[in-house]
C-alpha cells in the first residue's frame, strides 16, 4: 500500500506491505538502525521513535500508520539543534553503558521535554517507566534527566 | 627513579568521559544485528516444543520448496564433523541429532533471502517426535531411577579448567568438594546450630541485545561477526568443531548490547557457521528474546546449609550441600558450581567446613554465566544464617562480622589453598553499615542488613595487548576485551595514556578482531581492567621505553635520564615531541612504535582453578528495607554497595558499574524468576518476566569506592561490577530477617513474604524459623 510520510524531515512516498512494522521499515529499508529491537512487546522502549512528537514503540506500530505523519528517529534528532544538550547530559553523567537502550531513552526524554512533562523528579520517574535499561541501574539516567529538566 | 618522573597521575584516577559516548548517544554505534553484508541470508531456527523427546524424523522438503529458501540445516548435515561442542564438556550437538533434551533446543535451521521467508519455512519443516518423560526439576533428575540424559561419555571441553572429569554418576555432570577440619567434632561442640533448606530461582540475564551472529564460510575459512564476550575462546571452539586452523577462523566483535555473562563462551555461533557452510553464503541469525531466554540463563539451585557456632556467636563450622540445575547441557555449569562452592563458606575463620556441590543435568534450558555467579547463589544463605547466629548469641550482626571475618593476607579457602585475602572486609562492611543507618532507632517492619562475601575472580590470567604510537603522536590500543557497556575502551585509553604521557583523547581503543587483536582469554570474571589492563600498561610502558631510547640516542645520554611529559621527551630543558622522535627514528615522517604486553600465570603457576583466583572480588552491601505486613511488599529505603576496587582508574565508570550491578541485585532479590513448568519456560517474554524499572530504584542509593591499592592490576586495581549483585540480595534478605521475616526462597515476591509473615507471627512458630 501507498505510504506518504516524513522521516527525519524528509518526505517520501513508498509502497509498504500492510503488515510491515515501522521498525522493520526504518531499519531494513532506510538503514536507520538507531531504533533497536528487543522485547517486541512494548515493554522495553529500545525501539522508541517519535511519531508527530509522541513516543511510539516501532516494534508494534505499523509503517502504514505513519501515513501523513512525521517520524523522528535518533538519526534525525541527532541533527537537530537541541540534541546537543541531551548528548552532553548523557555523556557527562555516563548515563549509558552498552548504549542499546540509549536512542529510545533520548527520544522519550525529548518528547517529555517538548511537552513540558519534565519538570520534576516525579515526572522523570513516571515518564521513563516505560524504558528499560539493564546496564546503568537508572541512577545516572535520572541525574542526566534532572539536568535536562533543570 | 629519576627526578623527571612525574609525581602525580595525569590520566589514571580521572573520570574521563566514555570514549563511545557520542557514538552511542547518536545511534551510530553498530551492533551485529545492524550489520549486513553482500549476499547475506537470514537464518531462523526450528526449536523443539518438547522438553525431552526422541526425534523420529526431520523432513525439510516442504521448506526447501518455498521461494527464497536457500538451505535447511538438519542433523544429517553434520556427519562429516564431530558435532559436539561445549567449552567445559563437549556434550552439546550443533542441532539435536536423535534426541531433544530441552524445550527450545535447535532441531533445524533455515537460511532464506529474508527473515519472513525463513520464518515461514521453519514452520514447513516436518518433525516427528516421540515424547519422553521430562526431568523438569532437580528432584526428578536426581531421583535414583531417573533416566540418564547423556548416555554417551562426553569429552572434556577445550576450556574445562577444573581438572579431569570424574566418573559421571546419574545426571550429575560435575562435583566440587571443599573439606577442611573435623566437621563432626565441631558440630558436636557447638552451642548454636542454624540449619535450613533454600531455593534460588532460574534467572534471565536479559542483555537487551539478543544473541546475534553473522557467519561467512568461504574458501579461506570462516569469518564471524558475533556479539560474543570471549572471541578467542569462540574462535578455538569453532576451529575445533569444523576442523579448521585457529587462524582460519576470524571473529570480529562490534559493540555488544549488554552481556552480563549471557554472551560468554560459545552460544549461537556453531549453528550459524554450520548454516552458512550449508548455504554457501553469509548468514545472519538474530535471536528473539524468547530464543535467548532458552539459550542461556542463571542456574536455579537447591541448597541445604548448617552453620554451627559457639555460645558467644563465634562461627565454628559450615556444612553446605547444593545442587545446580545446569539444564540439558553443561555450558558453564561446572565453573559456576566450583565458584559457588568457593563462595559457600563465606569469608569467616571457620574451624571446619564441608561443601558438597553438584551440577545436574535436567530437561531445562542450559544455564551458564550470569554476573557474580556462584556468589549470588550462596551469599544470601550463608549471611542470613550468620545473622540468625548473632540473634541467638545476642550480639550485633555487624559486631559478629568484625570479630569473625578473614583478615587481609589470611587464607580465604578453609583448606588454605589459593590466593589469600587481598581486601579489608571489616573496613568495607563498616562503611556499608554506616551508610544504611546502622544502630539508628527503627520502626516495626523495618530492618537493616549487611552482607559480606567474596567472588573468585579473574578467570584464567592470560591476556596480551599491543600499543602503537603513530607518527603523529596519537596511539592505538589493540586489546581483546569486548565493550559490553562496562567501559574498557575508556579505561584502556587512560591506562595507555598514563604510560605514554599523552592525553587519553589521543588514544583510540578498538574492538576485538581475532585476526589482528592480540590474544585475550575472555571478558568476564571482572578481569578486564585488572588483567587485560595490565597487558595494555606493559605494552604502553614498552613503547615509552623505545621513546626514551630514541631520545637518549639523540641527546647521547642514558635512557633513564629521559623524561616523558605531555607528548614530549624532555631532558635538562630540552624537549622533542613524539612525532619528531618517531621521524628521527625512521628518518622520515612515517613509521610507528608498536609493542606488546603480556600477562600470564606467574611463579610457574598454571593459572588453574585450584591455584586461583587471580584476586577476590569483594561483595559487600548494606540495605534498609520496610515490609508491608498486610501485602508482603518490600520497599528498599536505603542501599549501600562497596566497590572495593583497589584503584579506580575511572571513578565515574566504577560507580556506574556498581549501581548497575546493585539494581540487578534488586531484581534478583525481589522479583526475577523464570518459571519452569515441566522444564518449559512459562514466562518467556518481558511482560511476564519482570526486570527492574526506574520505579524500582531505592529511595537512597550509595555506591562507595574503596581504594586500598591492593589489587594485582595496574596501579593496584582489581575488578569490580559484579560484587554488588551478590551482596545486594543477601543484604536485603538479612534486612528482612532483621524485620522479623527470615526467608529461604528467592525471589522475595509479596506473596512469598506474606505467607512467611503468617508463619512467623503465629505464636507457636515464632522461634522455629531455623528448623525446616
Provide structural commentary.
The complex is a heterodimer of chains A (150) and B (772). Chain A has six helices and five strands; from the N terminus they run E-E-H-E-E-E-H-H-H-H-H. With 150 residues, chain A is of the alpha+beta class. Chain A has two domains: 2-77, Ubiquitin-like (UB roll) (Roll), CATH 3.10.20; 83-149, [2Fe-2S]-binding domain (DNA polymerase, domain 1, Orthogonal Bundle). Chain A has a five-stranded mixed beta sheet with strand order 2-1-5-3-4. In chain A, helix 3 (83-92) packs antiparallel against helix 6. Chain B has 772 residues and is α+β, with helices and mostly antiparallel strands. Chain B has three domains: 21-29 and 462-599, Aldehyde Oxidoreductase, domain 4 (2-Layer Sandwich); 38-373, Aldehyde oxidase/xanthine dehydrogenase, a/b hammerhead (Aldehyde Oxidoreductase, domain 3); 382-459 and 613-770, 2-Layer Sandwich (Aldehyde Oxidoreductase, domain 4). Chain B is built from 18 helices and 32 strands. In chain B, the strands form nine sheets. In chain B, strands 3-8-1-16-13-14-15 form a seven-stranded mixed beta sheet. In chain B, a hairpin with a 4-residue loop joins strand 21 (463-470) and strand 22. The chains are: A alpha+beta (150), B alpha+beta (772). The interface between A and B is large, with 49 and 55 residues.
Largest sheet geometry of chain A:
5 strands, mixed
Structural class of chain B: alpha+beta
Helices of chain B, by number, come to: 18
Name of the CATH first level of the largest domain in chain A: Alpha Beta
Distance between the termini of chain B: 64 Å
- Largest sheet, spatial ordering of strands of chain B: 3-8-1-16-13-14-15
Biggest sheet details of chain B? 7 strands, mixed
Beta strands of chain B, count = 32
Q: What is the CATH homologous superfamily assignment of the largest domain in chain A?
A: Beta-grasp domain
Helix content of chain B: 25-40%
**Strand arrangement across the biggest beta sheet of chain A:** 2-1-5-3-4
- CATH level-4 homologous superfamily of the largest domain in chain B: Aldehyde oxidase/xanthine dehydrogenase, a/b hammerhead
Low-confidence stretches of chain A: none
Average pLDDT of chain B, rounded to a whole number, is 95
User: Quaternary arrangement of the chains shown?
Assistant: heterodimer
Shape of chain A: globular
Count every helix of chain A, treating DSSP H or I runs of 4 or more residues as helices. 6
What is the CATH class name of the largest domain in chain B? Answer: Alpha Beta
Q: What is the β-strand count of chain A?
A: 5
Amino acid at each position: 500500500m501507498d505510504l506518504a510520510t516524513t522521516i527525519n524531515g524528509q518526505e517520501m512516498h513508498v509502497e509498504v506491505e500492510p503488515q510491515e512494522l515501522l521498525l522493520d521499515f526504518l531499519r531494513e529499508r532506510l538503514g536507520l538502525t538507531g531504533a533497536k529491537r528487543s522485547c517486541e512487546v512494548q515493554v522495553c522502549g529500545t525501539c522508541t521513535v517519535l511519531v508527530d512528537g509522541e513516543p511510539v514503540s516501532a516494534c508494534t506500530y505499523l509503517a502504514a500508520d505513519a501515513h501523513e505523519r512525521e517520524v523522528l528517529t535518533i538519526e534525525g534528532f541527532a541533527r537537530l539543534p537541541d540534541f546537543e544538550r541531551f548528548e552532553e547530559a548523557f555523556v557527562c553523567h555516563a548515563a549509558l553503558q552498552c548504549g542499546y537502550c540509549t536512542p529510545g531513552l533520548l527520544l522519550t526524554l525529548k518528547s517529555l521535554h517538548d511537552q513540558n512533562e519534565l519538570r520534576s523528579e516525579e515526572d522523570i520517574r513516571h515518564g521513563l517507566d516505560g524504558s528499560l535499561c539493564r546496564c546503568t541501574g537508572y541512577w545516572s539516567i535520572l541525574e542526566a534527566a534532572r539536568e535536562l529538566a533543570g | 627513579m629519576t627526578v623527571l618522573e612525574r609525581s602525580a597521575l595525569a590520566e589514571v584516577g580521572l573520570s574521563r568521559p566514555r570514549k563511545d559516548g557520542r557514538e552511542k548517544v547518536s545511534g551510530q554505534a553498530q551492533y551485529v544485528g545492524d550489520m549486513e553484508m553482500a549476499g547475506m541470508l537470514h537464518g531462523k531456527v526450528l526449536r523443539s516444543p518438547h522438553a525431552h523427546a526422541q526425534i523420529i524424523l526431520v523432513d525439510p522438503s516442504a521448506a526447501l520448496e518455498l521461494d527464497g529458501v536457500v538451505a535447511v540445516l538438519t542433523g544429517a548435515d553434520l556427519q562429516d564433523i564431530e558435532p559436539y561442542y561445549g567449552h567445559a564438556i563437549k556434550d552439546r550437538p550443533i542441532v539435536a541429532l536423535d534426541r531433544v533434551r530441552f524445550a527450545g533446543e535447535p532441531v533445524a535451521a533455515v537460511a532464506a533471502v529474508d527473515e519472513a521467508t525463513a520464518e515461514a519455512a521453519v514452520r514447513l519443516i516436518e518433525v516427528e517426535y516421540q515424547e519422553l518423560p521430562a526431568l523438569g526439576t532437580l528432584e526428578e533428575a536426581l531421583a535414583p531411577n531417573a533416566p540418564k540424559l547423556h548416555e554417551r561419555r562426553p569429552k572434556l571441553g577445550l576450556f574445562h579448567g577444573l581438572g579431569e572429569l570424574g566418573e559421571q554418576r546419574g545426571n550429575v555432570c560435575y562435583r566440587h568438594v571443599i573439606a577442611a577440619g573435623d566437621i563432626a567434632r565441631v558440630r558436636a561442640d557447638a552451642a548454636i546450630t542454624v540449619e535450613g533448606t533454600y531455593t534460588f530461582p532460574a534467572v534471565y540475564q536479559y542483555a537487551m541485545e539478543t544473541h546475534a551472529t553473522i557467519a561467512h564460510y568461504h574458501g579461506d575459512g570462516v569469518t564471524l561477526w558475533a556479539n560474543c564476550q570471549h572471541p578467542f575462546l569462540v574462535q578455538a571452539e569453532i576451529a575445533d568443531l569444523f576442523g579448521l586452523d585457529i587462524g582460519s577462523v576470524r571473529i570480529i566483535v562490534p559493540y555488544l548490547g549488554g552481556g552480563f555473562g549471557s554472551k560468554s563462551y560459545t552460544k549461537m555461533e556453531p549453528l550459524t557457521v554450520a548454516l552458512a557452510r550449508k548455504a554457501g553464503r553469509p548468514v545472519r541469525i538474530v535471536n528473539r528474546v524468547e530464543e535467548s531466554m532458552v539459550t542461556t540463563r542463571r542456574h536455579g539451585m537447591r541448597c541445604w546449609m548448617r552453620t554451627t557456632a559457639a555460645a558467644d556467636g563465634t562461627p565454628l563450622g559450615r556444612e553446605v550441600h547444593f545442587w545446580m540445575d545446569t539444564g540439558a547441557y553443561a555450558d558453564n555449569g561446572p565453573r559456576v558450581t566450583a565458584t559457588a562452592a568457593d563462595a559457600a563458606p563465606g569469608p569467616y575463620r571457620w574451624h571446619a567446613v564441608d561443601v558438597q556441590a553438584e551440577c545436574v543435568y535436567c530437561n531445562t534450558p542450559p544455564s551458564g554465566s550470569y554476573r557474580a555467579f556462584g556468589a549470588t547463589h550462596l551469599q544470601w544463605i550463608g549471611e542470613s544464617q550468620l545473622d540468625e547466629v548473632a540473634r541467638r548469641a545476642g550480639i550485633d550482626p555487624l559486631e559478629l562480622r568484625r570479630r569473625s571475618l578473614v583478615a587481609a593476607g589470611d587464607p580465604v579457602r578453609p583448606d588454605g589453598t589459593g590466593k589469600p585475602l587481598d581486601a579489608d572486609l571489616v573496613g568495607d562492611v563498616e562503611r556499608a553499615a554506616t551508610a544504611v543507618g546502622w544502630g539508628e532507632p527503627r520502626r516495626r517492619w523495618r530492618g537493616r542488613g549487611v552482607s559480606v562475601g567474596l567472588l573468585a575472580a579473574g578467570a584464567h590470567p592470560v591476556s596480551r595487548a599491543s600499543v602503537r604510537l603513530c607518527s603523529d603522536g596519537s596511539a592505538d590500543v589493540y586489546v581483546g576485551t569486548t565493550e559490553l557497556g562496562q567501559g574498557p575502551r575508556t579505561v584502556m585509553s587512560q591506562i595507555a595514556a598514563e604510560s605514554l604521557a599523552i592525553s587519553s583523547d589521543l588514544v583510540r581503543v578498538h574492538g576485538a578482531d581475532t585476526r589482528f587483536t592480540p590474544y585475550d582469554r575472555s571478558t568476564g570474571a571482572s578481569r578486564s581492567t585488572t588483567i587485560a589492563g595490565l597487558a595494555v600498561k606493559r605494552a604502553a610502558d614498552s613503547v615509552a621505553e623505545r621513546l626514551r631510547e630514541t631520545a637518549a640516542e639523540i641527546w647521547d645520554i642514558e635512557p633513564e635520564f629521559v623524561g616523558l611529559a605531555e607528548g614530549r621527551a624532555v631532558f635538562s630543558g630540552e624537549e622533542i615531541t613524539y612525532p619528531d622522535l618517531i621521524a628521527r627514528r625512521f628518518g622520515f615522517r612515517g613509521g610507528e612504535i608498536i609493542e606488546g604486553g603480556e600477562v600470564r600465570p606467574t611463579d610457574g603457576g598454571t593459572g588453574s582453578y585450584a591455584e586461583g583466583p587471580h584476586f577476590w572480588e569483594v561483595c559487600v552491601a548494606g540495605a534498609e528495607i520496610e515490609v508491608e505486613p498486610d501485602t508482603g511488599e518490600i520497599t528498599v529505603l536505603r542501599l549501600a554497595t562497596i566497590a572495593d576496587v583497589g584503584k579506580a582508574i575511572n571513578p565515574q565508570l566504577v560507580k556506574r558499574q556498581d549501581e548497575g550491578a546493585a539494581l540487578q541485585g534488586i531484581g534478583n532479590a525481589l522479583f526475577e524468576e523464570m518459571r519452569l513448568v515441566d522444564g518449559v519456560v512459562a514466562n518467556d517474554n518481558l511482560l511476564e518476566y519482570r526486570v527492574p524499572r526506574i520505579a524500582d530504584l531505592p529511595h537512597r542509593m550509595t555506591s562507595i569506592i574503596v581504594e586500598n591499592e591492593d589489587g594485582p592490576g595496574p596501579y593496584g586495581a582489581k575488578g569490580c561490577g559484579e560484587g554488588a549483585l551478590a551482596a545486594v540480595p543477601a543484604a536485603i534478605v538479612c534486612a528482612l530477617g532483621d524485620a522479623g521475616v527470615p526467608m529461604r526462597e528467592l525471589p522475595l515476591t509479596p506473596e512469598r513474604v506474606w505467607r512467611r509473615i503468617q508463619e512467623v507471627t503465629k505464636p507457636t512458630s515464632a522461634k522455629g524459623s531455623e528448623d525446616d
